[in-house]
Amino acid sequence: MQFSVNKKINTSMTDLDRILVLAGLKRLDEGVSLNGLNETVAFAVAVGEAYEAAPKHDPAADRHWIALKRHTIDVLLKRVQGSGIRIEYTEDDPYHEFGSSPKMMIRAMLYDILVNKRLLIYSGNSDDHPNFSPEENVIFRTIHDYFTHGKLLSTFKRNLQEVLPNVMKGEKPTPEQLAAAMPQISLTKGGNMGHSFTLRGELNAVSAHIRLAPKEAAPALFTEVAGQVCYYMCTAQFPPQKVTVLPGFDFKNIGKTLPGSEADRRKKEVMEILERSSPEDFIDLKIAARPKVKIARLLRNANSHDPYGR
């Protein structure tokens, strides 16, 4: 990778900032209101427990899913279909071709969309939804991945043209080349954590998706994405799909809880536990599938695509 040195560098910049400036690339911003790993984990526990406590189907919440479905099929699906991207569904977790780290998986997806004009979507666990049919469920996943995790596509294309022009002509890159072409994808504070397949990446993804959708669809998006991924982070199990509004959360500012709510109280309580405890200590969860978990495991899960290992 060739860097131009005729760039002015601020000495207060992070290492990532310096790399980006030298490469002529831009920093990418996040959308979540969470500061640090402890707060991210505490928020996830509060959301996961709220998901556990909520009913499987609250008929009063159907209107949020109807609004989401209409916008997904009538507006966003048509945009994807008009883009020339081929959608393929798979029962296997896709995008491990260049490595299984969250950073490489998102790079592999962007590469597939840009070069192969294809997007692979996981089709498992798509039935047993109180409102979506299996087909509607995988269409929702298609839209979510394309417009949120695929948000970096234009940046990725520009980067490839700058540093790996032969890839745009059909030459297959190595994992190291893909990483060099997309240094903005970082899992540490100060980099772009908002688009990879991690807990924080999914929280950023739902934030981006909510900004695209009508206001009435926001509670459904929060339950579908944040609710399910936070439950999964706590338990390493895919949760039962639900149509219910999770109380106590700010759907506009993802990461924030409503003052005085049970969610707010629980988030603060978990943060206090994390701050005074050792990573080897256990924390009690109000989730039947995993009522107790080691703190070190929760912290690791928050930055991992694959909780509890393989």
In DSSP terms (H or I, runs of 4 or more residues), the helix count works out at: 12
What proportion strand? 5-15%
Report the helical percentage: 40-55%
> Largest sheet, described in full?
2 strands, parallel
| SS-derived structural category | mainly alpha
Query: What is the mean predicted local confidence, pLDDT?
Result: 84
Rg from C-alpha positions? 20 Å
Poorly predicted regions: 1-28, 187-194
Quaternary form: single chain
Query: Based on DSSP secondary structure assignment, what is the total number of beta strands?
Result: 4
Order of helices and strands: HHHEHEHHHHHHHEEH
Strand order of the largest sheet: 1-2
Intertermini distance: 34 Å
Task: Describe this entry's structure for a reader.
- This protein has 310 residues and is mainly alpha-helical.
- It has 12 helices and 4 strands.
- It has helices at 15-23, 36-53, 62-81, 102-116, 134-147, 153-163, 165-168, 175-181, 199-212, 218-235, 262-276, 295-302, and strands at residues 86-90, 118-122, 282-284, 292-294.
- A two-stranded parallel ribbon has the order 1-2.
- A hairpin with a 7-residue loop joins strand 3 and strand 4 (292-294).
- The protein is globular, with a radius of gyration of 20 Å.
- It starts with 14 loop residues before the first helix and ends in an 8-residue tail after the last helix.
